[in-house]
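Aggregate trends can hide what the representation actually does to any particular protein. The sequence in question and its structure tokens are set out directly beneath this paragraph.
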Amino acid sequence: MELINIKNIYKSYGVNDSKVEALKGVSLKINKGELVAIIGASGSGKSTLLNIIGCIDKPSVGEYFLLGEDINKSSERELSKIRNTKIGFVLQYFGLVSSYTVYENIELPLIYSKAKNKKEKINNILEKLKISDKKEKLPSELSGGQNQRVAIGRALINDPEIILADEPTGALDKKTSNQVMDLLKGLNEEGKTVIIVTHDDNVANRCDRIIKIEDGIIKGEKINEKKD
């Protein structure tokens, strides 16, 4: 089932002499349940592409369909709802609120939610990610890997269909990076569509498909053989 369909997207910032073309005619399809890596050097446009997929930014030119919906026609209120219910974000430096506990950070997306059994949902996530014993700790009291687990927990709390991870292992050592990738692969195996922006070949090679972007243009892609 086609989940994401991006057609001939351009994205520019600034005007006149300061104008920067971040994306130059990118077209891309991603099916439900895929585990995809987007690779490229710093400044290649990969994070810009992820922000457009995540409805954080809109293209200057081009079309974006998410589950058949024309995202370019969505209001800010509709985009906010999509970001809160259909998409979970995992960032390189975790993006946690330093003065909030682990429990409170995971709870954040639920603040304006009418979901029932919030406490049960949070405790289930804490248990799933093996950080139940850390729920009263602050981010400063945790290791990098533990903080990334909290960030993943926050991304999962509204049970989104899509997980977008921007350099999720960039601030971690190799062992912890592998543990975080194990988690993301496990979520994919449970049915989540996972899209990872990375410059790490080891991370990319654990994905089903690798999309290479250079200077705002998709230069090619590779299908990895299923392992395990």
